[in-house]
Amino acid sequence: MSEITLDPETWSCPAPVRERPRIVMGHGGGGALSAELVRDIFAPAYGGEALAGMGDAAALTLGGVRLAFSTDTFVVRPLFFPGGSIGDLAVNGTVNDLAMTGARAAYLSCGFVLEEGVELEVVDRVAKALGAAARAAGVEVATGDTKVVEAGHGDGIFINTAGIGLIPAGVDLRPQRVVPGDVVIVSGGIGVHGVAIMSVREGLEFGVELESDCAALGSLVEAMLAVTPDLHVLRDPTRGGLAAALNEIAAASGTGVVLRERDLPVPPAVANACAILGLDPMYVANEGKLVAFVPRESADAVLAAMRAHPLGAGAAIIGEAVEEHPGMVVARTPLGGTRVVDLPIGEQLPRIC
């Protein structure tokens, strides 16, 4: 019998191991590993005050004009999915990052990384979807770039988009403005995008076909700001889901957040899929939803304006900011208990945006 040699260095684990000296998939998941990567490597290397806010987009002043500037890279698999494509995501993701500062997107750049061998018909479909999404969002693709990598060194198509927009006077959206008593509102059913991607990627069926909620949220934000420009912070809960967005806001604001689990708008199909797959809907990505922290005196009016908009018809109040347990998010369960909603280490569903 031959001797078997075991080398622990070659072992792999599906869970991200934080002390490993190499990049793992969890570093791109929007959770604790992503935050550590930015905090320990990128932020010290880049420096600068503009980066310090660590929001979805940077709010900048240039020549007396307040601008929002953001960039994002999209590596979703598959390229086409129910409700959208990588082209739609490339527009809506960056437009939404700008919208979370209150800005209306004006111009985008677009960089394509194409893998040798990808069909031109596929590239054409993606480009047309991207152009249509840009027109629907009222934004112009003003510049771009294309690179081709050897077969086996990509996954068909990757896209990077960067965007700029103008921030209206009197609008100041950032987590440091959150105060105890603020009401937490989510614009609709959570977890839809991530479960839609998983269903088509893995060939799973859950009784009904789920479509991604991918959408540009600029017009919804405008409707909310028309009620009051004094919204405190907005976030689109993409990678890491609602849980990651709320934890980031709680940490940056130094407040606690209390959620009412029974009030979370989880569509039945998402709830059923998550139960089967062992996922928590609060950690599943969204691409057409936002979460808002709103002064209590304005919450009812803002909620009504959201529900009157097609992209906010399912909006719901889900909790509030509190003085207790600063930096921590907790959920009150229907049975009267309380559980901690922690920042995820990595991601439950990779390659969803």
From TrEMBL:
It comes from the Bacteria. InterPro entries: HypE, PurM-like_C_dom, PurM-like_C_sf, PurM-like_N, PurM-like_N_sf. Pfam families: AIRS, AIRS_C. Residues 180-325 form the PurM-like C-terminal domain. CDD domains: HypE. One of its GO terms (biological process) is protein maturation. Residues 55-167 form the PurM-like N-terminal domain. Belongs to the HypE family. This is Hydrogenase expression/formation protein HypE. It comes from Streptomyces adustus.
